């Protein structure tokens, strides 16, 4: 039987977010910005996926570079160094895990514990790329701490602290403990996916040391979602 030519799939073209980037802090060393939902952190490989947070910022801030990323579907805070020395310093802080990141997520179901942690190793799911999966043998150590902000019979608003920074860590960890993030088209079951028009995950706080002064910088961005009728209430 003759070898059949490989079928080349069309490239995935990401939707173009019309929402602007909010700049919360700016100096000669770095920016702290609020990335909108459905905007790539860095340009994609395909020419039609060039639109990204970095490519937009380059127009007004030449020399910016990505020290870390948020998924296309995730909104919230990113620190963006403006030169190579600042990039090296911020990269070192991420490697030493001294950068503190806090997320808000609305998850499926009622989380019983007021706080806790998910300690499950992660690795790439090569058959289903770009997904990740739990792998107790060859996975990289991955730790997420969580705290309940508010509860609803069918949903829970969580504060999430990723101690490690693995790809898709928060999404996979929440799915693994039975509480997938609402609107997640990669890991949520159909009911959780249909419960929201977007991934309800937002990077709401970021703290790091300024690469020149050494002083602590902390930025806040409120999540654009909450549990209906329970905003501001204690966990119930």
What labels describe this entry?
236 residues; alpha+beta; Pseudouridine synthase; 9-stranded mixed beta sheet; 4 helices
Describe what this molecule looks like in 3D.
The protein is α+β, with helices and mostly antiparallel strands and 236 residues long. It has one domain: 2-Layer Sandwich (Pseudouridine synthase), CATH 3.30.2350. The protein is 13% helix and 30% strand. The strands form two sheets. Strands 1, 2, 3, 4, 5, 8, 9, 10 and 11 form a nine-stranded mixed β-sheet that branches. β10 and β11 form a beta hairpin. The radius of gyration is 19 Å and the shape is globular. The model is unreliable at 229-236 (pLDDT under 50).
Quick summary:
The chain is built from four helices and eleven strands. By secondary structure, it is α+β, with helices and mostly antiparallel strands.
